[in-house]
Amino acid sequence: MTLLDGKSLSAKIEKDLAVEIQKISEKGITPGLAVILVGNDPASCAYVGMKAKACKRVGIYSVTHEMPSTITQDELLSVIDILNHNPNIDGILVQLPLPKHIDSEKILEAIDPKKDVDGFHPFNIGRLSANLDAFIPATPLGVMRLLKAYEIEVSGKDVAIVGMSNIVGKPLASLMLNAGATVSLCHILTRDVAAYTRNADIVCVGVGKVGLITADMVKQGAIVIDIGINRLDSGAIVGDVDFANVAPKTSYITPVPGGVGPMTIATLLQNTLKAAKNRSDSRKGI
């Protein structure tokens, strides 16, 4: 059993990014990321804080717009419109979830697709589905880059993905399909999840349920990617996989924390640099 160490890989990615960002900054382009945080949800505040620190480490200019939970949808749309037209901002990220009185879909659709470094805009989702160049959601893209770093071949493999969110499950399924895998996408209405996971070469899970994937649900030698993040009453962070009992059966498995999480932030930084490079290229064409 080998641990898929996302923490070490993300550190290497950040080191390489810092060099690239230094080079593009010398040409007058400093990548800029704007994060919109609505309310004071502890988890969201923690995530935003980690992203800001990561930006500082690699040389990305970042600004966080903290909004009260009482902000109206129109007011939030107005903030996004200002950022869409700000030439110093390459990426716009709206931290989810948003308060219930705000339509998240309308907010995400309002972001300029060229600045949609989260990859949630329908334009980018469509391009991903068609296997065209696009901004891809950071978590599923981080999973693919983690697999690639460990030279794990996806083509021809049977992959079971548990969880079909627009943020993780669905885009991850598209990426796996584009890479040549045969994909089963399980969700809350799937009658027998184990029937799919037991036969899978690669099992990916991200639903937010402690101990969802047990040892009897994976075959010997399977590759298990745990995308879940759960905080126990003790304060410990665990994933959706019963790690202690599942790990001995696997050939590769991600730890939680230290697996997919760090890759999510590293990939977001890569997407922001990509947006800045696109801005630089568009200037050349003027």
Automatic annotation (TrEMBL):
Q: Could you say which EC number(s) this protein's record lists?
A: 1.5.1.5, 3.5.4.9
Reactions that this protein is recorded to catalyse:
(6R)-5,10-methylene-5,6,7,8-tetrahydrofolate + NADP(+) = (6R)-5,10-methenyltetrahydrofolate + NADPH; (6R)-5,10-methenyltetrahydrofolate + H2O = (6R)-10-formyltetrahydrofolate + H(+)
Q: Which InterPro entries match?
A: Aminoacid_DH-like_N_sf, NAD(P)-bd_dom_sf, THF_DH/CycHdrlase, THF_DH/CycHdrlase_cat_dom, THF_DH/CycHdrlase_CS, THF_DH/CycHdrlase_NAD-bd_dom
* Record-linked PROSITE patterns: THF_DHG_CYH_1 (PS00766), THF_DHG_CYH_2 (PS00767)
Which ranges carry the Tetrahydrofolate dehydrogenase/cyclohydrolase NAD(P)-binding domain?
A: 137-279
Q: What is this protein called?
A: Bifunctional protein FolD
Q: Name one GO cellular component term.
A: cytosol
Give every Tetrahydrofolate dehydrogenase/cyclohydrolase catalytic domain span: 4-118
- Gene of this entry: folD
Give the binding site residues for NADP(+).
Answer: G163, M164, S165, I188, I229
Query: Is the keyword Secreted in the record?
Result: no
Top-level taxonomy: Bacteria, Pseudomonadati, Campylobacterota, Epsilonproteobacteria, Campylobacterales
How does this chain assemble?
Homodimer.
Q: Which family does it belong to?
A: Belongs to the tetrahydrofolate dehydrogenase/cyclohydrolase family.
